[in-house]
């Protein structure tokens, strides 16, 4: 087995830039690896934690359950409540979009549930956002428009219990 090689502290700022670049190049596993290398040296590096959350969410279409679990476990490490709420909203919104893209039976109900979760977190983030930062409002509006565009995105009916046949 091979051992991981540590980064130098001076390499952290350019490594963070590379993580962002790899996300933009649609290489989230590379971005994830870079963030993990940074966090091995600076476990509380907020920028690396946020980029790791985003890199994991970029992997939702390939591995929804495990990437979602890993990303949500990182959120408590964010020291700012605004960021915790905002990025929890991002994770829920991206999960809603994956369910919507799957097109499987019930995907509209799942998407609706996750859009609601996202919007709830965006509401919390909006209440405590820094002055001049309207990102949670922009994300809220995107959720509203996504729900409006897709008629299959609706709440699950109250009487949707279907017992299994024996």
Characterize the structure shown.
This protein is mostly helical and 166 residues long. It has two domains: 9-67, no CATH class; 80-156. 66% of the residues lie in helices and 0% in strands. It contains seven helices and no strands. The chain has helices at 12-24, 28-41, 46-58, 64-74, 81-102, 107-128, 135-149. The longest helix is centred in the middle third of the chain and has 22 residues, at 81-102. It is globular and about 55 Å long. The termini are far apart.
Quaternary arrangement of the chains shown?
single chain
Order of helices and strands: HHHHHHH
| DSSP strand content | under 5%
Mean pLDDT: 95
**What overall form do the CA principal axes indicate?**
globular
Strand tally, please? 0
Structural class: mainly alpha
Helical fraction equals: 55-70%
Describe the secondary structure blueprint for this structure.
Elements: H1 12-24, H2 28-41, H3 46-58, H4 64-74, H5 81-102, H6 107-128, H7 135-149
Helix pairs in contact: 1-2, 1-3, 2-3, 3-4, 3-5, 4-5, 5-6, 5-7, 6-7
Keywords:
about 170 residues, mainly alpha, 2 domains, 7 helices, globular
What is the gist of this entry?
The chain is mostly helical. Helices cover 66% and strands 0% of the residues. The protein folds into 2 domains: 9-67, no CATH class; 80-156.
